[in-house]
Design a protein that fits this description.
Blueprint lengths: L5 H26 L6 H28 L7 H27 L7 H24 L8 H28 L4 H34 L2
Helix pairs in contact: 1-2, 1-3, 1-4, 2-3, 3-6, 4-5, 4-6, 5-6
Length: 206
């Protein structure tokens, strides 16, 4: 692999690390939630998201100038956008807490956020292996593990939604939490989309 090709894989690793940082910060926010601090939380989260945007812009700039890339230019671009989408979706969760003026936290939301941290950690490992995808013996197993977490989250989503319905006394609050759980599930789905993209790239290049 050409020396200049390392940039792409290092960019992906840095982008994934920012997704994990955002997920970890989300857990911290939910475990220590104070609705009076929500705007500060959003600002802190936006700082992480902004750094992720910088990584995406750096990738766009590099791809625009590159004559030869280690895999198809379109695949690198798609993967960069999908990684950025993970951090974007995590940021959107806190924005929903602000929009719906959430005062207390559903315990299942904390459990969900921890699942996002777990899948983000797996993505970090996946991106660490990606540069050597033709020789790596770990990539397939990591993709399977990410899929397993996503399936666990599907079950958590269903049970969380059912619990909301069963204890519903405030229609507006119930609708608000449904939208939040939708967004939590979307974060995990976004992580799985990244792993699927990696799998597709590997299949096309081996």
């Amino acid at each position: 692999m050409a020396k200049g090709d390392k940039f792409y894989f290092e960019n992906f690793e840095a982008s994934t690390a920012l997704s994990k940082e955002a997920a970890s910060y989300l857990v911290d926010c939910l475990e220590n939630y104070d609705s009076n601090d929500i705007q500060k939380m959003i600002e802190q989260m936006h700082g992480i998201e902004h750094r992720a945007d910088v990584k995406k812009h750096e990738m766009n700039k590099a791809l625009a100038k590159a004559f030869v890339t280690p895999v198809d230019r379109e695949d690198l671009d798609m993967l960069s956008h999908q990684l950025d989408d993970v951090t974007d979706k995590i940021e959107e969760i806190l924005q929903l807490f602000y929009i719906y003026d959430i005062r207390t936290i559903e315990p299942a939301a904390v459990e969900f956020a921890k699942k996002i941290v777990l899948v983000s950690e797996l993505l970090c490992q996946l991106m660490g292996e990606f540069e050597n995808f033709k020789r790596s013996k770990k990539i397939h197993d990591l993709i399977v593990q990410i899929n397993d977490v996503e399936e666990d989250c599907d079950k958590l989503y269903l049970s969380s939604m059912r619990a909301l319905t069963q204890k519903s006394t405030d229609v507006l609050l119930t609708v608000s939490w449904r939208k939040i759980f939708d967004r939590l599930e979307a974060c995990v789905d976004a992580c799985e989309h990244v792993s699927e993209c990696v799998g597709t790239v590997i299949m096309k290049n081996t």
